[in-house]
Amino acid sequence: MDVAQRVAVVTGGGAGIGSALVARLARAGARVVVADLDADGARAVAEAVNADHPGSTVSVGADVADTEQIQQVVGLAESAFGPVDLYFANAGIAGAPGLDASEQDWDRSIDVNVRAHIRAARLLVPRWLERGEGYFVSTASAAGLLTQIGSATYAVTKHAAVAFAEWLSVTYGDRGIRVSCLCPMGVNTKLLLSGEDSGDALGQAATRAVTSAGDVLEPAEVADAVLAALEDERFLVLPHEDVLETYRNKGSDYDRWLRGMRRYQSSLLAQA
């Protein structure tokens, strides 16, 4: 899809990968709603992008795991620019490490990392089917294809995000609905360091696992990879190419992969 003159919503757009996506979309000629729980962060991103591309963005503070607030975000896009063509379900949280995660931790991780995608799709897909096209972009993680050492909430919900994106593509891909799923490893964002700052050995191992497994990319590099995938209408977006080879190795010998992951986890914990 050529994003020029298209209307996009980017959730979690106030920082990190989200803010880089906003800037990259605007540079390509799209009109973008920047949505973030941090309204000030969203506003700052919109103002910075508008300085280079006047009138290309508007911002809104919103909890995009909440159906009513998703409706408000979409309504803002429609009133400011027109019907939404692309929805970037990018907002996410790291969650808590280990089995110490509370019921509230699980609920919030499932809401933000999975149900937010489902709720947005329930709102937008019927409209897109009527129009004959639409594009849903899910930010998952390499943890959704492999797993996440340390955080069960993150590993489980990112697997679910990948599964939901796959289901959308299988179910609606022949009816004009395009779907892409972003699965990076380490990206230089605040989320990357959340485990290191947790004070928990498993949380610290989670950060070390990501930072030692491959290059830590800048958000702008990831945004470029996403836009390239959109141009090709490619499902799986892998800014870290090594993820695909690891994923193939996992599928070819699951038990060997699990043994390797246990050894890797032990080595990371030994660094604590």
From TrEMBL:
<dbReference type="GO" id="GO:0016491">
    <property type="term" value="F:oxidoreductase activity"/>
</dbReference>
<dbReference type="InterPro" id="IPR002347">
    <property type="entry name" value="SDR_fam"/>
</dbReference>
<protein>
    <submittedName>
        <fullName>SDR family oxidoreductase</fullName>
    </submittedName>
</protein>
<dbReference type="Pfam" id="PF00106">
    <property type="entry name" value="adh_short"/>
</dbReference>
<dbReference type="InterPro" id="IPR020904">
    <property type="entry name" value="Sc_DH/Rdtase_CS"/>
</dbReference>
<comment type="similarity">
    <text>Belongs to the short-chain dehydrogenases/reductases (SDR) family.</text>
</comment>
<keyword id="KW-0560">Oxidoreductase</keyword>
<dbReference type="InterPro" id="IPR036291">
    <property type="entry name" value="NAD(P)-bd_dom_sf"/>
</dbReference>
